[in-house]
Structure formats: C-alpha cells, structure tokens
Task: inverse folding
C-alpha cells in the first residue's frame, strides 16, 4: 500500500524550514521570557492571585511559556485580559488569539506565551501546574514584594 504512495509522491521526510542556531533559540527564549514576565506583572497589577510562569518549551511543541493566574470574578478576568491585550499590542505589537469574553477560564494565546486566567474553582479542577509538573517555574521579580504603601 505505501509502496504505491512512495512511488507516486516520493518519500516524505519532515524537516523544519525555520531551523535556528542554538544561540538564536536562546535569544528567542529570552525575548519570550521578558514578554511573559511583563504580562504576569500586568496581571499582578490588576490583583490576580497565585500567578505562575512556567517554561513549557521542553514539554510541548507549540509554545514556550504558560502564565497561570487566578481572578475572583468574571469582571476581574475581563480587566486582566484587557490590560494584557492593551500592553501586548501597544508595547510589543502582539495580538492574541483566544477568548475575547470573560469566562471561568479565559485563554490568551500569543504564540510563544499562552496566558490562562481562571476562577478559583476552575483552576483547581484543571490543575495545569500538576499536569505540566515537569515544567520549569520562573521566579517572578515582583511576586514577593509587599504592595506599595498608600497613605
């Protein structure tokens, strides 16, 4: 059966046309990390909780980083998503695919960074941190800082 296909079309060998050098891959990872941290900071500013950035590139072929955050209402999910979309477009020239209406789980896909914003019950149910347990967690430079003092 396959012999006829091979005779007609030749042997197909998968090859990546965008093969990059290891140093170019590292540069892309660093650029994606910078973007991911900036987006996580925006989520933090809109009072998202338990924000995690995971380096998932070794585990999946379709993205480099996940951001997982908890919001406590659909309007908060909308606010986080709107602020992230605005910063991504205005400062980085990136427009996400994914949800435009707040749900109990909203996903913003920027290609190299995928952002998941959950309500607490859905985050516990889907438990992406456990599912991607072998991903490398990224320490966020702002997560352990106390909130700014406001008199």
Result:
């Amino acid at each position: 059966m396959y012999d006829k296909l091979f005779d007609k079309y030749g042997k197909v060998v998968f090859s990546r046309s965008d093969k990059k050098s290891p140093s170019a891959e590292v540069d892309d990872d660093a650029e994606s990390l910078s973007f991911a941290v900036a987006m996580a900071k925006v989520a933090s500013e809109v009072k998202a909780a338990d924000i995690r950035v995971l380096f998932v590139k070794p585990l999946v072929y379709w993205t480099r980083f996940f951001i997982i955050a908890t919001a406590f209402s659909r309007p908060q999910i909308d606010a986080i998503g709107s602020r992230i979309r605005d910063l991504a477009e205005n400062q980085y020239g990136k427009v996400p695919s994914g949800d435009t209406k707040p749900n109990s789980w909203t996903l913003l896909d920027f290609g190299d960074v995928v952002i998941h914003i959950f309500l607490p019950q859905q985050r516990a149910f889907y438990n992406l941190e456990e599912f991607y347990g072998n991903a490398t967690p990224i320490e966020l430079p702002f997560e352990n800082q106390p909130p700014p003092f406001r008199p």
User: Anything to note?
Assistant: The radius of gyration is 19 Å.
